[in-house]
Structures are given as structure tokens and as C-alpha cells.
Write a structure and sequence with these properties.
- This protein is α/β, with parallel strands linked by helices and about 400 residues long.
- It has a single domain, classed as TIM Barrel.
- About 30% of the residues lie in helices and about 15% in strands.
- The chain contains eleven helices and 13 strands.
- Helix 7 links the parallel strand 10 and strand 11.
- Helix 1 packs parallel to helix 2 and helix 2 packs across helix 3.
- The longest helix is centred in the middle third of the chain and has 21 residues.
- It starts with about 60 loop residues before the first strand and ends in a 16-residue tail after the last helix.
- The structure holds flavin mononucleotide.
């Protein structure tokens, strides 16, 4: 990358240059006025506010109030360089805010460089990475929306090719792919690297890295952090006997396999403002009931939900799968909702997010009205329809307040 100099102009910048300064192009100006909250609970067409569908009633946890109960699920966009948030993330996440998502969870963001799924993942392992996230948080807040960030380590699923990125071999770190248990037996599949086993010292360093990333997230002004313990990434690898055959204090019994998670929860909680909630995302099952042998399943998930609540988790986000290529998943509308419901019933006082093939307002609202979850997260639905919330309002016949800039678009 050539150094930007006084003669560099935007039009001269080579397509591949990503860290460009614009010395003669002025500077960024944040939106000067806050348009106020929108797509919130106010339903002018209904006489009785209690009749507002739950999806459009506000949700409060700790000091965080979310205008509606639709969460944008975290989604890796593989659009980062050296872990830095880019203009892509500002537009991508910012657009959900302009269109009314209550809470936007930014993608799996690595707490250590070797914890990235791909070289194109976002990261929060250095202070320099704070500014890009802060810019997004400021923008999202000015739309009346809230921003969270998912803190992650990919473990044995690290250092893979993002599905559209074409990077040189040198961008990857195949010799430093780590896991609770190492060797060919624990390679996820032939598209992943053979992991090496983490030492106890490295485990402690990783736990500290989650805490340090939480400090950076707080400095960026995000409203919550979500610890990523789902989808077969490092924490899930520790939890499940499918991927953890350690014989020390981090393997064996459920207590030992959950130790890494609980130490991370405590570290994050101690390093994130007490007034702000901490989310945790888990996989409820490994989906290998068809195979012999122990695995991760819903009753263990219920048990750790109780433990993490004690350790300071405020919101429990229930996904599933991702820890083994041998999984057999039966995808269907709302297929993960029963797991969320099970946790909600078993752990009173713990707020729960349901996610997975929730594709419309009525379906999302039903999950809440039937008390199966407290919030609903939507992933691909937002990629297909970034205005998912506006569509949901129409479907539920809720008159919502648009942002000031978009108000004239109302018919
Ligand atoms: C493009 C894409 C990227 C994703 N990245 C993440 C991620 O960074 N962290 C995570 O926990 N889940 C990730 N997921 C899973 C989603 O958060 C969500 O759980 C999943 O898509 C199911 O919800 P849906 O049916 O509403 O899409 C990703 C999904 C997609 C489609």
C-alpha cells in the first residue's frame, strides 16, 4: 500500500488500497442532530397501548432500553482488514439502524488475531481498532437504535478462506490454529487446519483477551457485548466432549468443560460497565444424537444457563450446531425456538433470545406472545429485507414512527 501523501486524491486511490488518508479532502462530519427514536412502541392506531404487539413494545435490561424487540443477529461480513472496521461496516450496520432495528449485534469480532475465522474478520485486540467501532456506535445511536458487538475466538475453525475473499497463503496462520484438544482427530474437516492444543497459560491469556476486548468495546460506546460460545467456535469446543478430551481442569466433567466459559464471563463482566448488559450466545446442541458417545445437548445448555446467570450474563441467546461436520440438523421455520423456550422455562429471570428461520413479523411476535423468548433475532431475513422491521410493522398493522429523514416515505 503506497503511503498516502499530500498529492493523493480519492480518485487516484487504487482499488486495493484500504487504509487511505484524505489530507486534502476535508474530514468526516457526524450527523449533527439526533432524529430521535423511531419504530418504537408507539402505536397511534390502537387506543390501548397494552395491545401493541410485544414485538413493538420496548425491552429493558439493565440500563439498556431497546425500542422494539427485533435484534439483528451477528453476521460476519468478511469485509475487514487487519481486524479494522471499515466503511462497509458503517453502511451495513448503519442501514439497519436507519430502518428501525431495535438492537444490532455486530459480527463475531476476534479478541486475538489467531482467533479470527478468516483474515477478513473484524477484531478488537488492539486499541487502534476502537475508533472504527466508535464511529458506527455513534451513528447507530443517532438513529435511536442500539449496538452490541459479538466477542469471539474461532479456535479450531480459524484461518479459513472467507467464501469470496481471494487472499495470498501468507494471510493465513495454519500453524497457530488452537483448540482445547489438538491433532488430526480434532480437525473440523479437510477445509480446516489441524489444531494444536492450548496450554493452560494460553487459556489464561485468551480469557484475559476477552476482558481486554470488552474494555475496548466499552470505550467504543457499544451498548452490550455478546460472548460467542456457539457454532463450534473456541468456547463451544471447550463445552462439548466432541471437541474437548482434556484431562486437566478444563476437560472431563461438565464443570471442567464449562470452566473456560465461566472464567470468560467473569472476566468480561468485570471489564464492562456494570450498568450495561452482557449477552451470551450458545449452541443448544451438537445434533449428533444419531452417533454413539457423549456430546453437547440441551440439558447441559440449561445447566450452564443457570451458572452463567450467576456469573453475570443478562441475556442468553440460543442458537445450535456448528461443532462437528457429522451433525444432522433438521432446518424448519423457528427450528431453534424450542431450545430458547426450554431455557426460558428452566431459568426464571434470565432473558432469552430466540433465533433461526424467523422470517416475518407475525412469526416473530408469536414467539414473544407465547412467552418462548424475550427478544427475537433475525439474520438472513435482514440481508434479504434490510427493512425487516418496517415490514413486520405493516404485517402486524402497527403504526410506527419512522426516523425523521425517512418520515416522508410513509404512504
Ligand atoms: C452471512 C452470515 C454470517 C453469520 N455470522 C455469524 C456471526 O458472526 N456470529 C454468529 O453467532 N452467527 C453468525 N451467523 C448466524 C446468524 O447469526 C443466525 O444465527 C443464523 O443465520 C440463523 O438465523 P436466520 O435464520 O435468521 O438467518 C451468520 C449467518 C450468516 C447468514
Amino acid at each position: 500500500m503506497p503511503a498516502a501523501n499530500d498529492s493523493t486524491t480519492a480518485s487516484e486511490v487504487n482499488e486495493k488500497d484500504t487504509r487511505v488518508q484524505f489530507p486534502q479532502e476535508g474530514y468526516f462530519i457526524e450527523q449533527p442532530i439526533a432524529p430521535g427514536s423511531y419504530l418504537g412502541p408507539i402505536n397511534a392506531s390502537l387506543p390501548d397501548a397494552d395491545k401493541v404487539p410485544l414485538l413493538f413494545q420496548p425491552f429493558k435490561v439493565k440500563d439498556l432500553t431497546i425500542a422494539n424487540r427485533v435484534v439483528v443477529a451477528p453476521m460476519c461480513m468478511f469485509s475487514s482488514l487487519d481486524g479494522f472496521f471499515t466503511d462497509y461496516h458503517l453502511v451495513h450496520l448503519g442501514s439497519f439502524a436507519t430502518l428501525g432495528a431495535g438492537l444490532i449485534l455486530a459480527e463475531a469480532t476476534a479478541v486475538l488475531p489467531e482467533g479470527r475465522i478468516s483474515p477478513s474478520d473484524t477484531g478488537l485486540w488492539r486499541d487502534e481498532q476502537i475508533a472504527g467501532l466508535k464511529r458506527i456506535a455513534n451513528f447507530v445511536h443517532k438513529q435511536g437504535s442500539k449496538l452490541g458487538i459479538q466477542l469471539a475466538h474461532a479456535g479450531r475453525k480459524a484461518s479459513v478462506k472467507a467464501y469470496y475473499a481471494d487472499l495470498p497463503e501468507s494471510a493465513y496462520w495454519k500453524d497457530n490454529v488452537v483448540a482445547p484438544s489438538g491433532g488430526a482427530e480434532f480437525q473440523w474437516d479437510d477445509k480446516h487446519h489441524v489444531p494444536r492444543e492450548l496450554s493452560v497459560e494460553e487459556i489464561h491469556r485468551t480469557i484475559k483477551a476477552f476482558g481486554a476486548a470488552a474494555v475496548r468495546a466499552a470505550k467504543a460506546g457499544v451498548d452490550t457485548v455478546e460472548i460467542h460460545a456457539a457454532h463450534g467456535y473456541l468456547i463451544h469446543q471447550f463445552l462439548s466432549p466432541v471437541s474437548n478430551n482434556r484431562t486437566d481442569q478444563y476437560g472431563g466433567s461438565l464443570e471442567n468443560r464449562a470452566r473456560f466459559l465461566l472464567e470468560i464471563v467473569r472476566e468480561v463482566r468485570a471489564n464492562f460497565p456494570p450498568s450495561k448488559p452482557v449477552f451470551l450466545r450458545v449452541s443448544a446442541t451438537d445434533y449428533v444424537e444419531h452417533l454413539d458417545g457423549p456430546s453437547w445437548e440441551i440439558e447441559q445448555t440449561v445447566q450452564i444457563a443457570k451458572w452463567v446467570k450467576e456469573a453475570g450474563v443478562d441475556v442468553f441467546h440460543v442458537s445450535s450446531g456448528g461443532n462437528t461436520a457429522k451433525q444432522e440438523v433438521k432446518y424448519a421455520p423457528g427450528y431453534q425456538v424450542p431450545f430458547a423456550e426450554r431455557v426460558k422455562q428452566a431459568v426464571p429471570g434470565l432473558d432469552v433470545v430466540a433465533v433461526g428461520v424467523i422470517t416475518g413479523g407475525k412469526q416473530a411476535n408469536e414467539v414473544l406472545e407465547e412467552e418462548k423468548a424475550d427478544l427475537v433475532a433475525v439474520g438472513r431475513g435482514f440481508l434479504r429485507h434490510p427493512n425487516f422491521v418496517m415490514n413486520a410493522a405493516e404485517e402486524l398493522n402497527v403504526k410506527v414512527k419512522y426516523s425523521q429523514q425517512y418520515e416522508r416515505g410513509r404512504m
